[in-house]
Amino acid sequence: MAEWAARLAGVRAVVLDISGVLYDSGGEGGGVPIPGSREAVRKLKASGLKLRFCTNETQATREKFVEKLQRLGFDILVSEVTAPAPAACRILKERNLRPHLLVHDGLVPEFDQLDKGNPNCVVLGEAADNFSYQNLNEAFRVLIGLENPILLSLGRGRYYKETDGLKLDVGVYMKALEYACDIQAEVVGKPSKMFFQSALAEMGVEPQQAIMIGDDIVNDVGGAQQCGMRALQVRTGKYRPCDEQHPEVTPDGYVNNLAEAVDIILKQLDK
Fold it and tell me: pTM for the complete prediction?
């Protein structure tokens, strides 16, 4: 039994990252399930543990994203997913902000109910091919022209993995705009403490009662631990061996994949 399993007392909930844990995105079908992950999700749902999916995915609306995962065979509902775009929309409405969007075309419908005329902030997401010089420069011009520039970044990841390899993530472009405008972005999504707290509140549990399982050493593991949760890193997705010598973040444990993590968690809780 893994050493970390002995520290599972009191766990009532599991929070799962999606990309790199459940599946690798990309390809003709939209992605490939990681072996054992579909059954692992079914086991968690049958166990009585509370379950939440916490993702920084911003290349599609939450509804379309969940539809894709369902086609791939996952037992998952929209109501079980905490994602950055809906959270950003709530912030924009509360603060009367009118966004200039630099996001993926598939995400634009999330913002349909918002006033986007005469923008007074910029919202940045995983824009993929929309991250052109022209589009980045337009976002820069909006920010630099504001007396109090506001940049909302839907996550701050450095890279993520698709079926054909690693891809630059939104955090790279966030840093470029921060540097150019001499500002600091507000991150909506992992590793934001508020984002994790939202997922916990939706399950009705305290941080010490939940365990996070993710492939990102900083945004999944580090973010969850800063919130007071326990966290495991899977050796799938964007995981690299050098993560195990990270200078700032040490997971509570490592597992080869989600299936192994779930089997160990459920065996320990059955004791």
Answer: 0.92
